[in-house]
């Protein structure tokens, strides 16, 4: 039997499909309390109902691994591309060569922005009002701004 739970995740202005930093620790604690102490949960497969459907959660020992939707990728319009750059206070020259900010969605929308080096990231001067307007217009939860500086074997982030 699969245990199913339902939650909603809310920000000040919207409801998010899923919030893994909240779901996984909460589900892990729930399983620890009920499986190990009370024997109430007998399956290693759980289900979490979100506003965009059910997500499978697999338990291994006391760790939880939650399924996510396969990502979808969408190119931004030229106008939105320029607004993203403006909102971060950068230019196209600051991006990883050959890339553009991209809308990625795995249940929640994010704009992913690859920056050529960590120095540019440290110097960002975000326009939070413009980021908020873009987030509303594109139905975003936020931006992921990253650089490959410091990436090496054996290191994920």
Written overview of the protein:
With 157 residues, this protein is α+β, with helices and mostly antiparallel strands. It has helices at residues 20-38, 78-88, 118-122, 128-138; strands at 3-6, 9-10, 15-16, 45-50, 53-60, 63-66, 72-75, 102-105, 109-114, 140-146. A four-stranded mixed beta sheet has the order 1-4-5-6, covered by helices on one side. A four-stranded mixed beta sheet has the order 7-8-9-10, with helices on one face. Helix 2 (78-88) runs antiparallel to helix 4 (128-138). The radius of gyration is 19 Å and the shape is globular.
Structure summary, number of beta strands? 10
Give the structural class.
Answer: alpha+beta
Strand content: 25-35%
What is the quaternary state of this protein? single chain
| Widest β-sheet, arrangement of strands | 1-4-5-6
Per DSSP, the total helix count is 4
Shape: globular
Helical content stands at 25-40%
Helix-strand sequence: EEEHEEEEHEEHHE
**Residue windows where pLDDT falls under 50 for at least 5 positions:** 1-6
What is Rg?
A: 19 Å
Mean of all residue-level pLDDT scores:
78
Q: How can the largest sheet be summarized?
A: 4 strands, mixed
* CA distance, first residue to last residue: 36 Å
